[in-house]
């Protein structure tokens, strides 16, 4: 009887560590009214126009990414004041060092490459209001499709080829709180450089709020030299790249990208299947439990290397990979090979390293491959190690080989599942004059083969939310495997 009680207690404890986030009652229509839509141009015109080089990594990321940053009411910064200050500060930042953001994407007919025409055309700026309070729109942590109403992705007054690379929308709520929705073309920033942009924007807003300071203050000057990631001449592909898919045709025009406008490449396209959406919450206790489970490692592994292998990201990604691969309803599933992809920052991995402030896309897809039988029967520690090996593979020569491969084949990352992590980017930690965001998140478009890691709002900040979209039968299996692996 006592033993049975212990088992029940353990099951309850595991459910608390790794739970399925019950979908809240979501407000779908925020009743948003657009009051003003315009362009913010640089406060000073550039002396001359120039064409801005985009690397092969930038080239394939011609799609928009939308984020929303929610702020509670602040007595000194009502939404109207925030909008005015944001507009003014953006105009100054577009002079230098973010003049490329005021440009327009162009296809170079001679080279077939995308470039940014730095023509001072400006970014979009939208002022809007909602008929609800911030509390009334519901749980900010749960990815609500309604958040898309807080971001503008195109300006109706402009032709497709004239669309800005960035659009900022300030939406006020009845409580005095507000949201800043930002849409940027992914060719302009990756997650880390966008975080730096937000930090610089916040610092510039603080300095502009200081009447005695006439100089625009930045946290760090971005490095805009994207030639640092140019392909070698001639290109040298020195590794096999099973994580990449060659394309026979390329429609990489400014308006008709090879990628979908919602952020998925042609490899991870929308499915016509009925998808169930679930948010799996892992708190810090669950992640510690997974780390303990991953402790058995090959003989000879020292403690320093063990710490590099058994990280929070690696154990969570290993868990997700196993759940996704084993939930498939494909026949002969045991012998099927599963390839899992995730992004790795190559800034510190190159020789010499890229500046930490590099403004472009400096992430490549690491991969791990195994049969479903290996994932099911092998120890969890081995799955974690395979995830780690994906990042370890990303050396300077490997990264240069990927870039050169892109020069030759114009392809995309290819795998069964892509784990896209927003977990520790830290957008919610940026300090603006009106304080830090209550929550920051991407606008989510559900894709079967893209699983998102999203930050959680918890006491210790160590938890993560895992967003999964799968057909009903696969979701049922995913959830069962999820809970079994936490046991």
TrEMBL record:
Report residue spans for region: Disordered. Answer: 247-266
PANTHER family given in the database record: ACYLTRANSFERASE GLAUCE, TRICHOTHECENE 3-O-ACETYLTRANSFERASE
Organism annotation: Ziziphus jujuba var. spinosa
Q: Where is the composition biased (Low complexity)?
A: 256-266
Question: What name has this protein been given in UniProt?
Answer: Omega-hydroxypalmitate O-feruloyl transferase
**InterPro entries linked to this entry:** CAT-like_dom_sf, Plant_Fungal_Acyltransferase
The family line of this record is: Belongs to the plant acyltransferase family.
Q: Which GO terms describe its molecular function?
A: acyltransferase activity, transferring groups other than amino-acyl groups
Write down a Pfam family by its short name.
Transferase
């Amino acid at each position: 009887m006592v033993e049975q009680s212990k088992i029940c207690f353990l099951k309850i404890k595991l459910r608390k560590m790794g739970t399925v986030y019950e979908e809240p009652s979501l407000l779908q229509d925020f009743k948003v009214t657009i009051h003003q839509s315009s362009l913010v141009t640089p406060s000073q015109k550039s002396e001359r126009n120039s064409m801005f080089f985009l690397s092969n990594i930038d080239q394939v990321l011609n799609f928009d990414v939308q984020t929303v940053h929610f702020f509670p009411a602040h007595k000194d910064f009502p939404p109207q004041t925030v909008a005015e200050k944001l507009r003014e500060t953006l105009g100054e930042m577009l002079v230098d060092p973010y003049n490329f953001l005021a440009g327009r994407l162009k296809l170079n007919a001679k080279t077939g490459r995308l470039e940014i025409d730095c023509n001072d055309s400006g970014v979009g700026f939208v002022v809007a209001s909602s008929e609800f309070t911030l509390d009334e729109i519901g749980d900010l942590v749960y990815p609500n499709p309604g958040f898309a109403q807080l971001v503008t992705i195109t300006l109706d007054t402009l032709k497709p080829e004239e669309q800005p690379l960035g659009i900022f929308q300030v939406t006020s709520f009845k409580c005095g709180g507000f949201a800043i929705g930002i849409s940027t073309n992914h060719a302009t920033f990756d997650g880390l450089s966008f975080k730096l942009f937000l930090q610089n924007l916040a610092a510039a807003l603080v300095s502009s709020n200081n009447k005695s300071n006439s100089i625009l203050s930045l946290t760090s000057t971005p490095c805009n030299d994207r030639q640092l990631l140019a392909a070698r001449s001639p290109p040298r592909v020195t590794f096999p790249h099973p994580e990449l898919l060659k394309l026979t045709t390329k429609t990489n025009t400014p308006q008709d990208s090879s990628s979908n406008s919602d952020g998925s490449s042609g490899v991870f396209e929308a499915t016509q299947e009925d998808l169930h959406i679930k948010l799996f919450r892992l708190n810090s206790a669950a992640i510690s439990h997974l780390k303990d489970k991953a402790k058995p490692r090959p003989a000879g592994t020292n403690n320093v290397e063990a710490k590099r292998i058994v990280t929070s990201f690696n154990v969570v990604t290993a868990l997700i990979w196993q759940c996704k691969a084993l939930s498939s309803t494909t026949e002969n599933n045991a012998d099927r090979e599963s390839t899992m992809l995730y992004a790795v920052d190559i800034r510190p991995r190159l020789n010499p390293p890229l500046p930490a402030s590099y403004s472009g896309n400096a992430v490549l897809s690491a991969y791990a491959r195994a049969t479903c039988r290996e994932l099911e029967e092998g120890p969890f520690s081995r799955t974690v190690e395979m995830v780690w090996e994906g990042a370890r593979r990303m050396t300077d020569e490997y990264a240069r080989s990927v870039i050169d491969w892109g020069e030759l084949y114009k392809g995309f990352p290819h795998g069964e599942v892509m784990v896209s992590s927003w977990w520790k980017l830290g957008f919610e930690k940026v300090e603006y004059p009106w304080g830090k965001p209550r929550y920051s998140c991407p606008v989510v478009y559900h894709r079967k083969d893209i699983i998102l890691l999203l930050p959680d709002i918890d006491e210790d900040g160590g938890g993560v939310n895992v967003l999964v979209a799968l057909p009903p039968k696969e979701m049922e299996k995913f959830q069962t495997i999820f809970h079994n692996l936490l046991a």
